[in-house]
Every structure is written in structure tokens, then in C-alpha cells.
Amino acid sequence: MLPLLARMSTMRLASSVPLQMLKRTQSIAVNQRAANRQQQALIRGGIALVAVGSAGYLLNKVLNSPVGVVPGTIATSKQMTFADAVEANRPFSPVVKEHLRSTYAHFAGGLGMTGTFAYIFHRTGWSTRIMMMNRWAYLGISLVGTIGALYATKSIDDRENPGLKYGTWAIFNAAMGLSLAPIYFMQPALIARAALMTTGIVGSISAVGMTAKREQYLWLGAPLMAGLVAVCLASIGSVALPATAIRTLSMLENVSLYGGLAVFSGLVLWDTQKIIAHAEHARYTRQLSPINDAIGIYLDFINIFIRILAILDSRRRK
């Protein structure tokens, strides 16, 4: 639960970066680009998606090449017996496959609900109200609302109270959508490009995690949590420091954006293998919760998307 709260807090702090960029402009409303420029941005986003997907494929080939071991021998480079190699590269069981399908379906559903709620809140004027709020009040209210909804969602059993579980999950996505609604003030082509790049990154890394040997990357949990703490502290510093500390603010924002991008990309890999391990070690399918397992990947996606969007917007303004 604590890692999820840390990710949510980091997301809240990072989301203030594009909001601060918007407040520095003379008007809240962002003028639409010409149609040809939007098409060019979408084309560049598509090319970036193809590039990221190709990189993920190559990374998968490099990291997850099958282990060739003759029966009865030991692979000295890997220190792995033939039985261990078969165990590490065995196909998924039907239970694991079904849990993965259900988890990623709920992950996609959560993103769809969040985007829909964010658009509705933006169209009804809540984006303007959020932009006019004190940033500390915004962070406090949004954190309390989303943490409460997250705790309720995680604590309810899927099998005993499915209706209540899905209800609290919808409230959680609505709270996330409300806090992300001001993003719709940014250029649609920029949002689409960031979404395409984020989808490529998360999809490629998830594919690596699914095709890797069992529990190969679970050891990354501890260093990633340490990196998450560092990113969270940098995000707090970038919000708390006065605007006069230009160099320090610039350094902290870079740590929050680029360091956070690396940390949350690693968390996608870790969460993917954790979902698989959870499904394989569960004695009964009723012990599995696709919604609970999807929340980790969901928060990783949102954090990566916000950072890519902030980076693209910052480069556009230069």
C-alpha cells in the first residue's frame, strides 16, 4: 500500500509542473494549432511509438533470449540446471493467462474512465476552478480524495462485494480525472503525442516483463523504491522552493521529470512480473484481484504520461 501512496503523491506533485507552465502564460485557454501542425505532431508521435516499440522488441531479444541447456548438464554462465531452465521458461498456466488478461483489461478500463471523467470535469468548468486554487490546497484536497478512494478500493474483496468494489474503483478514477482535468487546456496534438509515447513505453516494457524468465526482475523492487523516494523529495522541493531559486528549481524539476521517467519505467517491469508471480503463487483464483493488481500499472502509466507531457510542452516553449 505504501508504494502505491508514494506513486500517487509523486504523480500529484509532478502534475503541478504542467499546471505551473500553464499559469505562466497570459491566458488560460490555449490557442489551437493549425490543422497541418497537429497532423505533423501526430505523425511524429506515431514515429516515436514505432521507435519505442522497436526498442522494446530489441530489448526483449537481448534480455530474454532462451536459455540453451543440454539435459543433465549445467549452464556455467547462468549457473542453471536443465530443470531450472525449463521451469524459468515454461509457458503460462491458464490461471496466469486469465489473470493477466483481466488485469490489463481493468488497467485499460481505468485509463478510459479517468480520461472520460477528466474531459467531463474540464467541460463543466472544474479545470478553471482548479487552476485558480492555491497549489497546496489543490495537492491536499486531491491527495485526501484519491488516497481515501484507493484505500477503500484495495480493502474491499472482489468476490464478496463486487458492486461496492467497482463503485469505489469508479470513484477513485473520478478523483484522478478531476485532478488531471486541467491537462485538457494543453494542445490536443501534444496530449495525443504524449499518450502515444506512453503507450509505447508501457507496452514494450510490459512485453519484456511477460516474456522474461520467472521473477527475473523482482529484485529491482528495493532500488526502485529508493529511487521513488528520491523523485518524491525532488518533486516536493520543486513545488515548495521559491521561484527565485532558479538553478535549484531547474535541477529538482529535471530530477522529478527525467529521474521519475526512469523510475516509473522500471516500476512497469517490476509490477508486470509481480502480477505474474502473484497469480502463480495464489492457491485459489479467488485470492486474485485484477483491480488491485491493475492499480500499480495504472499509476505507473499516469506518472509516465504526465512527465512526457511536461517534457514535450517544455521543449515546445523553448
UniProtKB/TrEMBL annotation:
GO terms for cellular component: mitochondrial inner membrane. It comes from Rotaria magnacalcarata. The chain crosses the membrane at residues 41-59, 104-124, 136-154, 166-185, 190-212, 218-243, 255-275, 295-312. Keywords: Membrane, Transmembrane, Transmembrane helix. Belongs to the BI1 family. It is found in: Membrane. This is Growth hormone-inducible transmembrane protein. The keyword Membrane applies. It is a multi-pass membrane protein. It comes from the Eukaryota. InterPro entries: Bax_inhibitor_1-related. The keyword Plastid does not apply.
